[in-house]
């Protein structure tokens, strides 16, 4: 049995999702989003991401964090912002002794939908089916759960 | 009297420098670099940056961190790497309760050399003069000291 924390980092909204994987069976544990304070200094927002991930780890005790390789925009300024959010989330996991693994958007889609070019909405639909959720999580939380599922399914192979 | 930690973040080498500023007088406290393990997983290297900054803060007790706004390359992949290193360094300072301030390369050069387009070597030379150092610190450590000096001089104005 393994508890997996999926993270979809972003400077405004960071999605997280915790699942359990045991002998190929997946179980939903928790999911949600960390919203940083708009117009707060950027360092403060990074710290909110660190604190948020720290809290989720303390609460749900995952052993591993699976992090989405952030969307590589053509804009270096966006990449820099996203990179800082990703760095804050990763060190929060590392400081809690979690192992950290990266998955590209293509690997995540392949693992969850079976098709690397799948649409975002298909991923969200499959997350709901695979975890037997009665309602759809928010888009960012669903993306984080998808990374966690990707890690669980990659291990099984 | 204020103790200032200057940080020049980078995924391979992160420079740091600690100075004291009292009534417009600057005093050198410490400087050095955090070298991350080459070929180690990137998350591990980010964690080394966090641990390194954490150690410097615990050892020298600065109240504020001044961080260089990283060089904005045209390459989004480099910006993403640099962003993650910067995020790791900033949250290490924030988790220790430090205030964090950003300074652009132009502001730093202006504050240290009096000229925003100054060459890197001029900055290093002036850092040595302003702090009365008998030897030149390494380039990355000198850059970090320059950010700290910039913060001190900006406050004085």
Q: Structurally, how many domains make up the residues of chain A?
A: 1
**CATH C-level of chain A:** Alpha Beta
Task: Say which CATH homologous superfamily of chain A is assigned.
Answer: Ribonuclease H-like superfamily/Ribonuclease H
- Name the overall outline of chain A: globular
Strand content of chain A: 15-25%
Note the run of SSEs of chain A as H and E.
Answer: EEEHEHEHHH
The helical percent of chain A reads 40-55%
Please tally the β strands of chain A and state the result: 5
How many helices of chain A? The count is 5
Corresponding CATH architecture of chain A: 2-Layer Sandwich
- Greatest chain-chain contact: A-B, 35 and 35 residues
Structural class of chain A: alpha/beta
Task: Please give a structural write-up.
2 copies of one chain form a homodimer. The first copy, chain A, is 50% helix and 24% strand. The model of chain A has no long low-confidence stretch (mean pLDDT 93). With 157 residues, chain A is an alpha/beta fold. In chain A, strands 3-2-1-4-5 form a 5-stranded mixed beta sheet. Chain A has one domain: Nucleotidyltransferase, domain 5, CATH 3.30.420.10. Chain A has 5 helices and 5 strands, in the order E-E-E-H-E-H-E-H-H-H. The radius of gyration of chain A is 15 Å and the shape is globular. Chain A starts with a strand and ends with a helix.
């Amino acid at each position: 049995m393994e508890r997996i924390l999926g993270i979809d980092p972003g400077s405004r909204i960071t999605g997280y999702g915790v699942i359990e994987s045991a002998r190929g069976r997946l179980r939903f544990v928790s999911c949600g989003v960390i919203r940083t304070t708009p117009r707060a200094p950027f360092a403060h927002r990074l710290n909110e991401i660190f604190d948020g991930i720290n809290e989720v780890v303390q609460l749900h005790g995952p052993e591993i964090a699976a992090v989405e390789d952030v969307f590589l925009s053509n804009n270096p300024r966006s990449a820099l912002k996203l990179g800082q959010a990703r760095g804050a989330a990763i060190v929060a996991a590392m400081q809690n002794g979690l192992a950290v693994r990266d998955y590209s958007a293509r690997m995540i889609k392949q693992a969850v939908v079976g098709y690397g070019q799948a649409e975002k909405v298909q991923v969200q639909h499959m997350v709901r089916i695979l975890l037997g959720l009665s309602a759809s999580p928010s888009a960012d939380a669903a993306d984080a759960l998808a990374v966690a599922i990707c890690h669980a399914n990659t291990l099984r192979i």
